[in-house]
Amino acid sequence: MTLGMDRDATTHRRWQNTFLAGAIVFGLAALGDAAGTAYALTTPGYVFGDGEFAGELMVFVLAAALMFGCVAFGRWHDRRRAALVAEHGHWLPAPTGRNGLGSVDLDVETARLRPLALRSVGFVFVWLAVLAGVVAGFVAMGASADHLLKTGARVTGEVLGVYKHSRGPDTIYVAYPVGDGHFRYADIVWDSDRQYTKGQPITVFYDKADPDRVRTPDETNDDQTWMWALAIGVIAGVSGLVLSTIAAVNWRRRYRAVSATGWRSASVTVVPDYPVRKGRHMPDITVAYRDGSRITLRAATSSHGSVPLKHEPDRQAWIGGTDRDMVVLFPHGRWREPPFAVPAYALNLRSSAKEAAPVPEDPEAAALVQRRLRWFLIGMAAWYAVLIAVCAVLLAQDLVWPLVFVGLVGSLAPVPLARIAFAWMQAAPKEK
């Protein structure tokens, strides 16, 4: 592969990933718009304003059109990149007809890569179901509060205290009479703009069957445990949906690449990035083909990890695919008998044993990368801490759709930030 071809392939891969990110963002926007419209349609008493429904429909159509447009452009760049890296000799030696151990049917193992993509697609639907459940939870919570307002016993109570908390939602403490003549006391979540003072009369609605279930005309007094559970469901659902979509796309690419190249027998050694707990990068996999040529791969982020396989150097395996879409097939995993596929990507081109001799790592450059990784992890932790805090504030203010928007954007924002940070860390050895 020439330098120009390599740059072109890199450019196509970057555009491909960019359009994939765009498809995810616009897909989530369409999903959020559809969920909001469904929530409004199922909320009792909600009335669309003039042109509001048409505007929601227009936003959905536009987001869906942009999503499919990103998918189309991403597939075009995928085909162009695949054509540039189709020269298998850069990654794999010529086939010799000897596949190593005869106990493994390589054609069957190639076919089994496709279900891995389908499994990721299945997880996409699982996370969609989670998000649908979250929307249903918000709808049910709103319907329950409206039902209590319409059917609950209406009495006049008294505000005994007004509390503004530094943590958690503000509350008012009220006393109200129930049917047996006794008074009940309750903390009611204060999430409206109405102001209260101690001793102020207040209208209270309580459930006759459960007098402790109470609300006011302005305060729905939703169960905060359920609100937190739904907020966590939003973040988990969006994050899981994004990761599952990326996994499905990547496994589909690997399946196509391995189907085109077939497998080559090799001896491989898994080299974790010690200490593993610091996780500067995923494990490297050094590959020695039977013709004496070598290549270094790096395991991709996946549930099919390679770290448990580090205990057996120079073990038998098969390599398939090209460039960023390669797979290392082990005869068996550490705890399982069936063949185990590990996704990987090439760090260099295939070369002779002499050319592939490892370059000693510069301790200063490694320390610099380690420091940058530490700052990156601290930044990500701070980002999610701020995201959770903002979601908590929006949740306390009963701002549902801003909460959904912030959850979506906040969960997706680390993706491009991570790419920038990884490029920054990769540049550290060059700076040194």
From TrEMBL:
Chain ranges passing through the membrane: 20-41, 53-74, 121-141, 226-249, 375-395, 401-422
UniProt key word Transmembrane: yes
Keywords: Membrane, Transmembrane, Transmembrane helix
Protein name: DUF3592 domain-containing protein
The organism of origin for this protein: Amycolatopsis heterodermiae
